[in-house]
Amino acid sequence: MSTDSAPVSGDGAVESPVLGPVVCAALRMEARAVRRGLSRTPVVVVGYRARHAARLPDACAALVAVGFGGALDERLRPGDVLVADEIRGAGGAAVPCSAPRLLAEELIRDGLSVQVGPLVTTDHVVHGAERARLAAQGARLADMESAVVAARAGRLPVAAVRVVVDGPGHPLWHPGTIGRGLAARRVLARTGPALERWSVLLVRGEEGTATG
After folding, report:
1. Helical H segments across 124-167, by residue range
2. Is residue 165 part of a domain?
C-alpha cells in the first residue's frame, strides 16, 4: 500500500502509478487539511469544479474526493461528515461508491459524526428552492467536484467524504460561515487515518461485508 515511490509534481499531479488510493481535493486549503492525517497517500488538488481532473493518475487503487460540502437536509449539521454511497451528476446518472459503510465505520472509530447517503454534484452553489428540490430527490449533500472525479475514475473504485459547512438554517453567505469553515477544516484534518485504514481493507477485498 505504500505510495512513497509516487512522485508528486508542483501542481499536485501524481506523476506515476501508485498502489494505494489517491485523495482529490478541490482547494489547496482542503488538501493541506487532509494531508495532516495521511502518512502515505498522495493528495491531488483538482481545482474548483475539478477543472484540473486531468492531473489524476490513470492507475491507482481508488480515487477519493474529499473536502467541504453543503447539506441539503436538516439531518446533516455543520461539522458532520457525509460518506457518499452514490455520487449523482447533474444529469441524474449515479455512480455507486465502494464500501461506503466500511469507510463510515472507520471515521466513526476516530470520533467523527458521520452519516451515509447520496451526494449530488452541481456546477454552482445551491440554496433555497433548489436545495429543497434536490433533497426531495433523496440527495443528502451537494458539492461541485465529486461527479467529475467519479467520471475520471472510470472503473476504479471511488469514494467521497465531505464535511458540512452550510445547509438549511446555516446559509453559506453569512458571517458565521467563517467559524463553521474553520471547524470543518479541523474535522477534515482528522479524516486521513480512517481513509488509509479503509483503503487497506478495500485492497484486501474486505468491503463485501460492509457495503449496502
Report:
1. 128-136, 146-153
2. yes
Residue 1 forms part of a structural domain: no
Rg for the chain, CA atoms, rounded: 16
In the chain, the amino acid numbered 207 is: E
Decide if 120 is inside a domain. yes
CA dihedral 166, 71, 157, 40 (to 10 degrees): 30
pTM for this structure? 0.86
Q: Compute the residue count for the chain.
A: 212
What is the span of the domain harbouring residue 49?
Answer: 22-207
Cell of 7: 512522485
The residues, any chain, with a CB within 8 Å of residue 164's CB and separated by 6 or more, are 68, 69, 70, 71, 76, 77, 78, 79, 80, 81, 82, 141, 184
Per-residue cell: 95: 455512480
Which H/E stretch holds residue 52?
Answer: none
Is 149 in contact with 63 (CB distance < 8 Å)?
yes
| Residue 64 amino acid letter | V
Q: Name the E strands within 81-157.
A: 81-88, 94-96, 114-121, 141-143
**Cβ partners under 8 Å of residue 155, min gap 6:** none
* Surface-to-core class of residue 116, CB atoms within 10 Å of its CB (0-12 exposed, 13-18 middle, 19+ buried): middle
Q: Tens digit of pLDDT for each residue in 45-100?
A: 999 999 999 999 888 989 999 999 999 988 999 999 999 999 999 776 899 999 99
